[in-house]
Amino acid sequence: MPFNSLLRSLGLLFFSLTVSASDAPRQVHKDSQVQQQTDEKISFVVRYAEGELSAQSVGKKKRTNVVSVSPEDADGYAAYLEQQPGVLSVERDLPASNPRMPKAPITLPPGVMSAQSITDSPNDPGFSDQYAWQAPTDAYPGTHDILAATQKSIQTRKVRIGVADSGFHQVSDLIYAGGYNFSEIDGPGADFYTPQIDPSCTNSHGTAVAGIIAATTNNFNGVAGIVDTELYAARVMSCGSGYLSDLASGIYWLAGQPTGSAPTLAEPVDIINASMGSQSSTCPAYLQDAIDFAVSRNILVVVAAGNESMDASNYTPANCRNVVSVGSIDRRGNQSDFSNYGAEVDVAALGELVRTLNGEGKISLWFGTSFATPNAAGIAGLLKQQSPTLSPDRLALRLKEATRYPEVLSSSSFKGGIIDANLMITQFQRELSETMPDFKPALAKAERCHRSAYLDTSPDPTKLEALYELTADNLTLNNDDEYFTVFQYSKNQLIEDAKVVNSSRESKFLVQNVNPGENRYLFDICQKDGTGCVFGRSLELITDGTTTMASACGS
Q1: Cis omega before residue 188 (within 30°)?
Q2: 354-357: strand order across its sheet
Q3: Which residues, in sequence order, are bridge partners of residue 483?
Q4: How confident is residue 61, by pLDDT bands cut at 50, 70 and 90?
Q5: Of the candidates 442, 466, 439, which has an alpha carbon nearest to the alpha carbon of residue 523?
Q6: In what order do the strands lie in the sheet with 539-540?
Q7: pLDDT tens for residues 142-180?
Q8: Contact status, residue 390 vs residue 536, Cβ threshold 8 Å
Q9: Beta-strand (E) ranges in 182-279?
Q10: Residue 261: is its pLDDT beyond 70?
Q11: Which residue ranges does the chain devote to CATH 2.60.40?
């Protein structure tokens, strides 16, 4: 249809396109690759300002619609939409896929395991050759010392991790807490693990990724998952191919945002793993919106750098803001020849000979940044389980700081080095032990032992009994938006429910109405509103009630 004719019937077209993002499932070829947007249609993602009419509300502040038009009308229609009130942007809906597999996965026959023995290790049959768990050596610096980290890590609660992928299967070593199919190719729905629309598809990519993070450990079965995980599967592709708009929908859902027919999660996940992407020199705004929303919900987003042997600045979501992008190395610490590289790659992780599960639950070996990424996400989960409120930027910073650069890895390969899980946990726990301030009843201080002068002149002596003083003379604030902060929460609440009761830039200050019998108290260095805490509210103040004014002053 010529553009002038299109304009004359635009009202009808606009109405029909905003009623439904897609009237029918997108189709795939038998080889399960996305149907190219050629003669049939061109798809755009239209972003609307808050409050504008849209068929698909997938963001708290930004709402999007996927519309499809014939190629000859595409540019004109996109230009028209961009001029409409309330439209923020109109962008192509880019095809996406799992990164090209450099090698096919290798299924190991039963009983083929290494003779290497690791002391105090999980009893899962595939564990002995899960190289990422091993301590680095001069010969093999490309490992992450995960076993030592798990032995030190403190679990305050299960970590909630979402995997955005395809090829999820029900296997005995992997338990899903929930999942949903967001792929428009074969129609969204609650069934996220049934084989896709192409009956010849044997894809089990999502199962392999999830197995690295969340396989049940110490069950004499399969492999060991890095962290005790409440696992959610967002199926955003069909047989490894799909669209970035579906990835955005999956991210919103994992972040706890209502997304049409999908049941809204009661609470968002802690970490999202996305081992997929598209070749693009820019991150589409509709995908960046989804990532930013996830980060606003305190979620770390970890993504694959890609397997195209090119600069990752040309691969999305690796080039999006607010993500941790992961490149691949081999066990010897060399950059994998297939891995994308450059300043957009934040950290490196083992992406060759990675032992995990296939769609039948069998132990198999996988290659690619897709499998380096869950190593990074799982390691981040070890710290998140100890410090559930640690912000995404703080968690990402600790992941990036706990890295090594062996001589074989060029500093020009990636922005960051090889993740060291044990170093990350060790540094965090050491800093916690060095941070503990003094927190005692104010009148228990030696200089205030003549209590009668205080109590006799106080209109309410009970308030003085509940007055505590915090002293953090051994600590310093690094910038102007940091405060010494005390939180309070009741003993039947979670740490996430803790509220700020006082904060100060002075290293000594008073806290009123302290009741150790009913409440718990935390200390951290945070922003004024109690967010962005350095330790994620992990440091519990000792208020056992035994240090009273009488006992401290010897009376």
Answers
A1: no
A2: 106-107, 363-366, 354-357
A3: 526
A4: very low
A5: 439
A6: 499-504, 483-490, 519-526, 539-540
A7: 999 999 999 999 998 899 999 999 999 999 999 999 999
A8: yes
A9: 229-235, 237-238, 241-243, 271-274, 278-279
A10: yes
A11: 436-553
Q: Which residues of 472-504 are buried (b: 16+ CB within 10 A; e: fewer)?
A: beeeeeeeeebbbbbbbbeeeeebeebebbbbe
Q: 345, 364, 348, 368: which is closest to 356 by C-alpha?
A: 364
Residue of 99, 96, 95, 100 lying closest to 38 (CA atoms) = 95
Q: Answer whether 0.85 is exceeded by the pTM.
A: yes
Q: Which residues are catalytic?
A: 165, 205, 370
Report how far residue 360's alpha carbon sits from residue 489's, in angstroms, rounded to the nearest whole number.
45
| Residue 22 token pair | 């897609």
Whether the Cβ atoms of residue 376 and residue 262 lie closer than 8 Å to each other: no
6: pLDDT strictly greater than 60: no
Asked whether residue 550 carries a pLDDT value surpassing 70, the answer given is no
How far is Cα 194 from Cα 249, in angstroms, rounded to an integer?
20
CA terminus-to-terminus distance, the chain: 95
Residues of the chain with CATH 3.40.50.200: 1-106+154-434
24-28, 99-103, 261-265: range with lowest mean pLDDT: 24-28
Q: Is the distance from CB of 463 to CB of 513 less than 8 angstroms?
A: yes
The domain defined by 436-553 folds into Immunoglobulin-like (2.60.40)
Class of domain 1-106+154-434: alpha beta
